[in-house]
Design a protein that fits this description.
mainly alpha; elongated
């Protein structure tokens, strides 16, 4: 595969990852913001999760999974692209 093909693959995967996050996490975050009020930030959500709020716990857990999934998908593609570029 050429370096440009890896670039296209990387951008396509990045786009799918962003769209997936918007469809999966964003509605849940909006629902939580409506329940808690618009002044809620990460620290308030984290404190509620520590105190046993199930919705906050699930949102934080799934957000971490989403980030690790993105790293797991995008980092190898970028490394392959760099290796392909270095080889010629």
């Amino acid at each position: 595969m050429s370096s440009s093909a890896y670039g296209i693959l990387f951008l396509g995967t990045l786009g799918l990852w962003i769209v997936g996050g918007l469809l999966w996490l964003f509605p849940r975050k909006l629902r939580l913001l409506r329940r808690l009020g618009s002044s809620s930030d990460y620290y308030r959500i984290r404190d509620l999760a520590k105190n046993g709020d199930r919705e906050c716990q699930l949102l934080l857990r799934d957000s971490k999974r989403y980030m690790f999934l993105g790293l797991g998908m995008l980092l190898p593609i970028q490394l392959l692209k760099t290796a392909c570029f270095a080889c010629g």
